[in-house]
Fold:
Amino acid sequence: MFLLSKNTDMVPSSAEEVQLLQAGLGKRNVTMPDDLTHSQVSSLFSDAYPKMKSASGGWLLYKATGGQGRRRLNLVPPESEGYSGSTIRSATAGGKTMLYIVPLQDEFDLSPLPSDAQEFSQMPKAECKKCFKSMPLQILALHIKECNTAEYETLTDSEPELSNLPPDSPDLSPATEEKSTEAKCPVCLQSFPVMELELHASFCGDLDSPLNCPSPDVMEPQKEEMSCEEDVLRWIAARVDTTKEFSICVSRMNLLERGMSLWKRQKLSSPINTLKVTFLGEAGVDTGALRKEFLTEMISGIETRLFEGEDGKGKMPKYSINDLDNGLFRVAGEIFAVSLAQGGPAPRFLQEWCYNYLLSGNLENITVDNVNDMEYSPLIKLIEETSDLSKYSDQIMSCGYTGPINEQNKENIKRAIAMHAAARRTHMLQQLREGLQLYHLVDIMEKNKEVCRSLFVFEGGNDQVDSQYIVSHLDPKMSESGTLKHSKEMQILNNFQDFLMELEDGDPEDEEALCVSKVMQWLTGQAHVHLLLSERQAFKITVLFDHTCMERMPDHRICYPVVSACTQTITFPTAHSTSLNEFKENMKIAVQQGAYFYRV
Structure:
């Protein structure tokens, strides 16, 4: 078992574990039979952790997710009677997995306990060689530093001792001592006493550290490896400078070109700051939804505008010297980084070799199959299908192939063409990498290549919103069960689910057709599944029902669902939504014509 000091959803760091142990919390081995009840389990925990006897705010058990480093805690759900011995045995796989006791409302004191405290009665002890006191090992580690410091201070405060030192002895005046015991933290560059620096540095590198660190643009990247993409997203999100804003005021007309141009021209602030978006002519105030909608449209537009390739196989940069000269690939890299850090979609459409080049600068694993070029892929196909290669000699030689042009060298010729198609795009990828340096993202990608891969490389529709994702996160505010109002509300919810499922069955090749992701963007501002697990768990769409529209406007014939994307709320008028056909028609008009932020 491991008792935490407060309600948290992350495992403690190594430094925090030592601090918890010194406070009488932390890890214990507890033996319990399968037939223990919840009250007996509580009593057993209180015996192991005396501080739990005074806790009255309740507790729950959690266990850590897989991997290494700072991991997220997942709830071990209690039974109806609470936690029994058999429940705990099952959750720990027979005692092989550690469980974390998380207090729900209490927060335990983290001050180190005296060495003779009850919590340390069963722990191994050792004797301090300075003062000859016996104490538990974790207390001894802290005591040794204090014991040495106390001895040193006694020496420097004693005038007779100083006067007896040789003339060439170093100056041990208090001012010199204070100066010599100060050092800079290598992470945040702030000065701390040497005795406290090691503990500070341990906390300073953590994601959830409360310590004040400097602006993210001078922050060095985290040195330890990350176990999952969520660690990467949290790390770069912590590097956003929330004290300043990067403001974009853009028209929806020609949004991509205007957005990239304004992004590039912005001189007063940096995209490392919090992105704030305003759409010209709309009253919406950006509290997150406008930013997500802007980033969603920009990532989708950049994929089409600056990248090319077959659908379902990933894409690579277009060979465009004009766009390279205008710095648009650098802008694209910055938008990718901001999107990952500030709640937008991940740019999961790159081909594998493009991602590898961004990190290594080398063209690795280039094959005919993973290079999809609008100009050279047709040439490769022609070479595969013909036996007379002489008529393509000029095109083959222009790709840099210098070997014999014959049937026996077809594979070498095709590889040379694929390498040529990839090589001429390296300047675009280099500029894209420059943009990805925002938040030191490239440095993190280099150290965690496999973890970051899924954020950039096309692997199928792993972040596509479906009807299940939307319906499962609905939070309807229903009338009393059994009433006519409640019956109408249930019918509307069923109609909404049927409407979304019909959209899923539509033609995926029809880009103009309404789809589930567009409904999601209409509801929330974003068209993708939330990247962070915590965001997915907290995500909900509040559903309200308007039963009084006919009373307010007796002569009207139709009104439509109304959405507040910032609060993720949708209001259905019950007078116009009970018939499935009428509901579907109203929804299509609402989504297609009501995408703007006109309501505040």
